[in-house]
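Cell division protein FtsL
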Amino acid sequence: MKHATTLSAIGLLLLLLASAFAVIYSKYCSRLLYIDIGKQERALDQYEVEWGQMQLELTTLADQNRVEQVALKELHLVSPVREKTIYIKP
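Tokens:
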């Protein structure tokens, strides 16, 4: 009888230790995931800043005055004379 009680106590102790290690491992994995989430959020913030900068750059580069200046200076294009311009009615 005493032998069975001892085996039961040892079995319960092993189950308790296994449960404790499972809790420790679970908490460790949870912390790793939390750290990874933080890294991903910082990367997302950086991408949002970069997106805003690109939107601003696109607006600047697509400005009508800028396009006209590039056409004149770099491409050496000139506006056609008024007499050569043809207007088409929709």
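The mean pLDDT is 92.
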